[in-house]
Nucleic acid-binding protein
Amino acid sequence: MRVCRQCQSEMIEGFNLRVKGAAYGIKIAKGTGIFADRIEEEPKVAICTKCGEISLYIEDIDKIREN
Ligand SMILES: [Zn+2]
């Protein structure tokens, strides 16, 4: 369970992040260019229904720690 950092309410998790007008999502990378250390997991979004705060998170963080 994720808790809103603004109002400490429970957040709804599992939303997908999509760029408006585009069919692809957002990828996260460290560094730039062809040597960038890419994270293949797509970030997920959690939403606070009380104050509207959104929070980005990576679902499978263990996989990233291993790299
Ligand atoms: Zn909130």
In short: Residues 61-66 form the longest helix (6 residues). The mean pLDDT is 84.
